[in-house]
């Protein structure tokens, strides 16, 4: 009861103060309130609440506009194997052009070092065999024409009732035989270079490239099948590596190689793997690869390559090398989140074939920024600079 009486006295005193002081009553009322005034929000605390440390907030539209690709973390890893190899012309980049029929060389139209296109004439040849083939084709065509006319005539007479149906059918069979003979004769003439009635013909290049060798001269006789010139396309080259036998099971078509040659380092892609393809049954594996880019070593150059083979370190997490960025002296990858990306510290291992092993920091289920990940690094640094101010 004493406490209640005291509270009433205080209340009455407060009311009296309000009446006496008028306008100053509000200040007294606030200062005497039991509620503490709310503290002003700290600006730095607000910023940290909006954007956690190490996070870059981006929408899907912003990610797409920046050209940032998001890829899944892969497992498998691999061991690096160094290979020695050479640059060779592809199989279809070399042609030893031969004469399809024997004859006398009338003109040589090219010289070593000259560029030619596919179908361009290399030499002019005068061939008796070619003339005979042309005559055979012309005779077969004439026989087919005569058989066609005879069949048409018999059809007309059969409609008038002059000849029997059997005559029409016999002439039709003769026409079919004559046309077949004419087609075969034309094909033989075309294969020989389509000589004219005098037996003159041209030996042409089957590919585009550079003439590397000419083996005939005007007035010389060329036997059937003899090589008259050689043509090579220098732009059609490939890399050939000799590898240990076990590599046949560890290298796949499409695998990446990092190649070093006379003109520096470049990337290549495996296009073929052949086991037991080494010289003299050595059991070596032959690996063929296609270089990426246009500035390539010439054929005959020596190169060395590094390839990541499969199945040697099993289960190691790998990410594209461009996904690994350095932030404040530490390696990080940017893991995709619903709001954007979070910089995640990792321990990076070996690099090969455009891939980097991650020894610690990821569990393999993440999706990370790959292409243009450096833009996230720059955005993160920009955010840290604004916090410092």
Automatic annotation (TrEMBL):
Look up keyword Mitochondrion and say if it applies: no
What sequence ranges are listed for the domain CzcB-like C-terminal circularly permuted SH3-like? 317-377
Describe the location of the CusB-like barrel-sandwich hybrid domain by residue ranges. 96-231
Give a Pfam family name: CzcB_C
The record's section on Gene3D superfamilies has:
2.40.30.170, 2.40.420.20, 2.40.50.100, Helix hairpin bin
What are the record keywords, sorted? Transport
The entry's family comment says: Belongs to the membrane fusion protein (MFP) (TC 8.A.1) family.
Its name, as the record gives it, is Efflux RND transporter periplasmic adaptor subunit
Organism for this UniProt entry: Brevundimonas terrae
């Amino acid at each position: 009861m004493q406490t209640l009486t005291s509270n009433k006295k205080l209340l009455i005193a407060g009311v009296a103060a309000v009446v006496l002081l008028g306008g100053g009553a509000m200040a007294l009322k606030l200062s005497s309130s039991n509620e503490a005034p709310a503290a002003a929000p700290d600006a730095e605390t607000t910023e940290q609440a909006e954007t956690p440390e190490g996070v870059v907030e981006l929408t899907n539209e912003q990610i797409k506009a920046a050209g940032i690709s998001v890829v899944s973390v892969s497992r498998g890893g691999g061991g690096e194997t160094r290979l020695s190899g050479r640059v060779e012309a592809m199989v279809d980049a070399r042609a030893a052009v031969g004469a399809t029929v024997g004859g006398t060389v009338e003109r040589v139209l090219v010289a070593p070092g000259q560029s030619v296109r596919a179908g361009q004439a290399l030499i002019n040849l005068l061939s008796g065999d070619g003339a005979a083939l042309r005559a055979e084709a012309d005779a077969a065509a004439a026989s087919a024409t005569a058989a066609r006319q005879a069949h048409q005539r018999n059809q007309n007479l059969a409609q008038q009732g002059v000849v029997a149906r059997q005559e029409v059918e016999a002439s039709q069979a003769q026409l079919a035989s004559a046309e077949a003979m004419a087609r075969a004769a034309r094909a033989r003439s075309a294969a020989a270079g389509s000589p004219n009635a005098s037996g003159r013909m041209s030996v042409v290049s089957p590919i585009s490239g550079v003439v590397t060798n000419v083996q005939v001269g005007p007035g010389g006789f060329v036997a059937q099948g003899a090589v008259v010139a050689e043509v090579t396309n220098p732009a059609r080259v490939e890399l050939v590596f000799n590898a240990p036998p076990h590599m046949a099971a560890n290298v796949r078509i499409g695998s990446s190689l990092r190649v070093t040659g006379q003109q520096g380092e470049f990337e290549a892609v495996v296009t073929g793997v052949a086991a037991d393809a080494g010289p003299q049954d050595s059991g070596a594996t032959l690996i063929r690869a296609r270089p990426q880019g246009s500035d390539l070593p010439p054929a005959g150059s020596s190169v060395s390559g590094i390839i990541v083979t499969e199945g040697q370190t099993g289960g190691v997490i790998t990410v594209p090398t461009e996904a690994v960025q350095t932030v404040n002296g530490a390696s990080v990858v940017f893991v995709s989140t619903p709001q954007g990306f979070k910089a995640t510290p990792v321990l990076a291992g070996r690099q090969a074939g455009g891939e980097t092993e991650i020894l610690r920091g990821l569990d393999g289920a993440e999706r990370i920024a790959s292409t243009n990940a450096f833009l996230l690094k720059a955005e993160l640094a920009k955010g840290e600079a604004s916090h410092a101010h």
